[in-house]
Design a protein that fits this description.
The complex is a heterodimer. Chain A has 22 helices and no strands. By secondary structure, chain A is mostly helical. Chain A is globular, with a radius of gyration of 23 Å. Chain B is mainly α. In chain B, about 15% of the residues are buried. The chains are: A mainly alpha, B mainly alpha.
């Protein structure tokens, strides 16, 4: 009898433990807020995770693009200025609320845009950004393989040729296969690739400095400055880096929710994302300007010679695959989180493949995107800078840093974040205002700008305009209509 | 996974209540203070102004 009672109790404890584990797993996926006791990342753990995310091959690409506009001295200044402003504003908009409440970023966004509006924002900010980066990184992979084959055979490389396209499509298919297998394989690649990329950067820096003194490097001219006005070229370079800083908006909130508190959610972004991304970009910039070529897959073969060049290109191809797997996995997990029942019903492998179709199209029909990839990056800032402005205005100035976990996670149809049919027209209007201000001040496609651009950039006015529009209109109209549970 | 069941709703309620208690008792740990915001502003200004004069 006693044994039966003990066994019954044991079974009950096991059931409770299994239930707790299920609940925690659901909270980790974003279905519920993570409790302070469930969040394990301290300052250094988050710094390492951030650095691993920031140290990727795209840092070489961005650094090389900066070298098109300005020389190394102005370029380093532009990298520091653009990244610190972009990262600080992005981190302010996303990480304090995640660090305080452990809330999933796009669930928290229901308080700013409504439960359907947050889905629209997800598609605009995450899906478009990820599809573009997948295509760019696949093309970088393809160019690495093309360069590799050219080095081996002694022939000239053809960066937009059939070999590149076939290799890029292969890279996307392989990424699809890896991600379809699940996150374990991705974690393994991350552990190997991030430290190895740091070593590669140090080796590249050593090789550059062994051929040029620091004084010589800093005095080198830009590769292809588009304007005669040096200040305008410099501010365009700052804008590219602001865009790089703001481009973390879709990702860092959901990493920060794993940290213990607000401080550990915020400060590691300065060391990890700002520090690591700036370091990688500076290496890319110095190499590009010193070797007269902004494409990393070409300057790597020039700087290191054929043998080391082959190893470096193989590694870059491998590292690109890891970055592609990371962003694809994160985006699809989020898509299923914000998606409707019909989206959730699509199988994991199928939804991954469908997501890859547009990157396939970009690789096949628009391979020129790679050379002008900074245009794509700057376009994303028209959206991300406005989102950061709205986030700061809403969380700090309208809500006094208070969110209601019950309303955010409960049934939405009749909740306070229903706004107007699930959309907050004020938030979405403010987003449009920020976007329009950005494009009016600086057109990413043509690089045409208003005179104010030289003094203000485009991302900063966009961020301010969106934040101000959201604040004023919410104060004027939202409370009277009972929208959004504003205090 | 859909969480329509009563158990999940009570779990959500439990988590929300924990945060409501922390909020009511003002017991959030490691909150950002004026010192953090001042430090962040000074750091940004120093880097922007310093590198602007050095590089631009």
């Amino acid at each position: 009898m006693t044994d039966h009672v003990a066994l019954g109790r044991l079974a009950s404890v096991e059931t409770e433990q299994a239930e707790a584990a299920r609940n925690r797993a659901a909270a980790e996926r974003g279905d519920a807020p993570l409790l302070p006791s469930e969040r394990l990342w301290g300052f250094w753990e988050f710094t390492y995770a951030n650095s691993a995310l920031a140290i990727a091959t795209w840092a070489f690409l961005i650094g090389g693009s900066v070298g098109l506009f300005v020389g190394p001295k102005e370029g380093i200044a532009a990298i520091v200025i653009g990244n610190i402003v972009g990262v600080i504003l992005t981190a302010l908009a996303t990480t304090p609320m995640s660090g305080r409440y452990g809330v999933e970023q796009f669930v928290a966004l229901r308080s700013q845009f409504g439960y359907n509006g947050s889905r629209v924002v997800y598609v605009l900010a995450v899906v478009v950004l990820t599809m573009g980066w997948l295509a760019v990184l696949a093309m970088m992979f393809g160019r690495s393989i093309d360069g590799l084959m050219a080095l081996s055979s002694g022939e000239a490389a053809n960066p937009t040729g059939a070999k590149m396209i076939v290799a890029a499509i292969g890279a996307i298919l392989l990424t699809w296969f890896i991600v379809a297998k699940g996150p374990t394989s991705i974690k393994f690649f991350n552990m190997v690739v991030s430290p190895a990329l740091v070593l590669l950067m140090v080796a590249m820096l050593y090789l550059i400095l062994s051929h040029h003194s620091i004084g010589e490097l800093l005095a080198l001219p830009a590769l292809a400055p588009p304007f005669e006005d040096k200040t305008l070229n410099f501010v365009v370079a700052v804008e590219v880096n602001l865009a790089a800083g703001f481009s973390w908006w879709p990702y860092i909130g959901n990493l920060a929710r794993l940290t213990k508190n607000e401080r550990t959610a915020f400060w590691p972004n300065i060391l990890g994302i700002f520090g690591a991304a700036a370091l990688g970009e500076i290496v890319g910039l110095l190499a590009a300007v010193a070797l007269g070529e902004s494409d990393p897959t070409i300057w790597m073969t020039k700087i290191a010679g054929p043998m080391i060049g082959i190893v470096a290109l193989l590694f870059v191809a491998f590292a690109n695959m890891t970055s592609m797997a990371n962003i694809l996995y994160t985006s699809i997990v989020g898509l299923r989180q914000v998606g409707t029942v019909s989206v959730r019903a699509i199988s994991w492998g199928t939804i991954l493949f469908l997501f890859c179709l547009i990157p396939f199209g970009l690789v096949i029909f628009y391979p020129q995107m790679y050379d002008g990839f900074f245009i794509f990056l700057v376009w994303t800032s028209a959206l991300n800078s406005a989102l950061a402005g709205i986030g700061i205005a809403d969380y700090f100035f309208l809500r006094g840093q208070k969110l209601d976990m019950r309303s955010l996670h409960g049934p939405q149809e009749n909740g306070p974040y229903r706004f107007w049919a699930g959309f907050n027209p004020i938030g979405l209007f403010a987003l449009a205002v920020g976007f329009i201000v950005y494009v009016a001040v600086f057109n990413p496609q043509t690089l045409a700008s208003l005179p104010a651009f030289k003094y203000l950039t485009a991302s900063v006015p966009s961020c301010l305009a969106a934040g101000a529009a959201h604040y004023v209109l919410t104060r004027l109209f939202a409370r009277g209509r009972g929208w959004g549970q504003y205090p | 996974m859909e969480h329509n069941d009563i158990a999940w709703q009570s779990e959500l309620s439990r988590r929300a209540r924990i945060y409501e208690d922390i909020e009511a008792g003002d017991r959030f740990e490691g909150t950002m203070t004026k010192l953090d915001y001042t430090g962040m502003t000074v750091l940004t200004l120093v880097l922007v102004v310093g590198f602007w004069f050095w590089g631009a």
